[in-house]
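We store sequence, tokenised fold; for instance:
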Amino acid sequence: MKRLLFVIPLALLFCFSFSCQQGKEAKKEDKTDIGAVGEEIKQFVKEWAEASNAGDLDRIMSMVADNCVRIPPNAPLLIGKEVIRTDQQQFFDLYTSKGDEAVVDFHACGDFAFSRGTWSYNLIPKAGGESNKAYGNFIDIYQKQSDGSLKLFWNTWSDEGVSTSLKEQTLETKQIENDIETAADTLASAISRLDAEEVTNLFSKIPGTKYITDGRVIPQQELLETFRELYGSLQEMDFIFEKKEVHVFNQGTAVFTGWVTYTAVTKEGQKIDEKAVYTMVYVNENGKWSVFQAYKSYTE
């Protein structure tokens, strides 16, 4: 089976054309020490929690990339280091926090690594009053710096303390799951039609939207041209998600995982078959679910 590395990397450029590592299942051709990366991520999360508990703003900001994007639950995006600093300072002015964070799983690919985990803090108002218990889940994406260290690149989290009844929350989550599956099916259909314009339009227009492949960053404004070039080398494509999972973090963020078997035929008549797993971060942009970032790994 021949890889679509040059014909349609990322099954048409929104996912990784070079496979990522997950847990201990590392591709032989990827020399990344996934165990070492995992320990580095766990240490990063530990130090972040320590800095939060200490109210140490400078330490927090030293762990954030200049072009970092944070997606809080039910709140506007935080784009750029200075915006994040202001938001973090406002939080430290209001609360003292005591808690911890734990990594549940992690991945690594090129100059990027990503983890998901849980967090739990006791928030104590500095103005006085009862403390509040806050907890939830998070997804972090880290970028390796020139000195080899990791810094926070993108980040989103859920807050289980949102004041919504369990019944309402369950119904809302189910609706979001259905909407995400529909959005993913729409993307698969556009890929099958080799429709570069529609595939591009299914990406987010939020500043910072990028396609990242093995350390290569392609900005949103270059996607259409790249799709057109890639699709121009094919005469047909069959792309369907055979199995789908959706994890909802909040009203504005969800993660889709899809297992797919797809085939393509080049203009020269060569047939290519492939199986892969896609993980895509979706954000709700003005009432429309769009791909903010996506990853691809091959399966046997």
User: Anything to note?
Assistant: Helices lie at 10-13, 34-54, 57-62, 81-94, 166-192, 196-201, 223-231. Residues 166-192 form the longest helix (27 residues). The longest strand covers residues 234-250. The two ends are 10 Å apart (CA to CA).
